[in-house]
Write a structure and sequence with these properties.
Blueprint lengths: L21 E5 L13 E5 L5 E3 L9 E6 L9 E6 L6 E7 L4 E6 L7 E2 L3 E7 L5 E3 L2 E7 L4 E2 L6 E6 L6 E7 L6 E7 L4 E14 L7 E11 L13 E6 L7 E2 L19 E8 L12 E12 L6
Parallel strand pairs: 3-5, 4-6, 5-7
Antiparallel strand pairs: 1-2, 6-9, 7-8, 9-10, 11-21, 12-15, 13-14, 14-21, 15-20, 16-19, 16-21, 17-18, 17-20
């Protein structure tokens, strides 16, 4: 796409799209608008700062750029698209001074929000449901983690009985809370907001009580920040096992707020701490809980890292 990074306000713009209070679509997603009604269509943002795109407006590949009214909007602008009729790939670019909310009926993700000067990519799939490309995920494997010196989880390595798969885990005791950590710089496209974590775990043989409460907390650092500071509030993922050496993928946590007030698009260094909370009401597994890995889902302001 010719516009480039969502954070580059000086990137190439679609020709002729600077009419105040309007958005312009280019149905071949190139950097120039051809003559003719099939290539260039402008819609006024109305006084309610809302726009419902009809079926003909959301066919094919479009770029929607919203610029300030005169006077500027006094409330967030809302675009509504119907996922049951829309088709194609969309770039929505917010040049407003206010947040831009995109409401997509019929799609399971929350309505994405664009901060001023950012863009978001929406992609329609084959089953008439939009996938909002506002989140990405990365894996944190056992090899990427380190046990704390104080109350650290033990490293475990078990061979499956019949087919000899090697289960490389951190093993969290049932007698006391134990901890591991991951650390590293986040992608530059990270929006600096909340993260969501999903644990992957298993357990050995036990007769009863299979609940495990995994908890996660995090802190972010910019250049020159002190390292020895408090983590953010821990958020749990409580899951129930039941079968020896089965793999369990726990529920995704609710939003985890990272301490340190990370800035968007700054690639800040983050430490995520994971522990088993044996005092949680949902934790009653009487043996070690084995953590294989966890995944981190985070919001992005761009599909690019430059």
């Amino acid at each position: 796409m010719a516009q480039g990074n969502s954070n580059n306000r000086n990137a190439a713009r679609i020709a002729g799209e600077q009419t105040a209070g309007q958005h312009t679509t280019s149905n071949d997603a190139d950097s120039a608008l051809d003559a003719g009604s099939t290539e260039r269509t402008a819609f006024q943002i109305d006084d309610s700062n809302a726009r419902t795109l009809n079926q003909s407006e959301v066919q094919g590949s479009h770029t929607f750029r919203f610029t300030n009214d005169t006077p500027a909007p006094t409330a967030a602008v809302t675009i509504t698209m119907d996922a049951t009729t829309a088709r194609g790939t969309f770039w929505v670019i917010n040049d407003l001074d206010e947040e831009l909310t995109i409401e997509i009926s019929g799609q399971p993700e929350p309505s994405p929000v664009l901060q001023p000067g950012t863009m978001k990519h929406l992609n329609h799939d084959a089953i008439d449901v939009f996938e909002v490309q506002g989140f990405e995920t990365f894996r944190v494997r056992k090899a990427d983690m380190v046990a704390r010196t104080t109350a650290g989880a033990a490293s475990g390595l078990v061979e499956a009985t019949t087919n000899l798969q090697m289960l490389d885990t951190f093993d969290f005791d049932t007698a006391a809370d134990e901890f591991v950590q991951w650390s590293g710089r986040m992608p530059k496209r990270w929006d600096g907001g909340d993260i969501y974590i999903t644990p992957v775990w298993s357990h050995a043989s036990t007769a009863t009580n299979f609940g495990v409460a995994w908890f996660f907390q995090a802190v972010a650092y910019a250049d020159g920040d002190a390292l020895d500071v408090a983590f953010g509030t821990a958020v749990g993922s409580v899951d129930t096992g039941g079968t020896t050496d089965d793999l369990y993928i726990g529920p995704e946590t609710t939003a985890i707020t990272i301490a340190g007030t990370p800035a968007p698009n700054a690639a800040e260094y983050v430490i995520i701490q994971c522990y088993r909370d044996i005092s949680d009401a949902g934790d009653d597994l009487g043996i070690d809980a084995r953590l294989h890995e966890f995944t981190v889902r985070y919001g992005v302001t761009s599909t690019l890292d430059d």
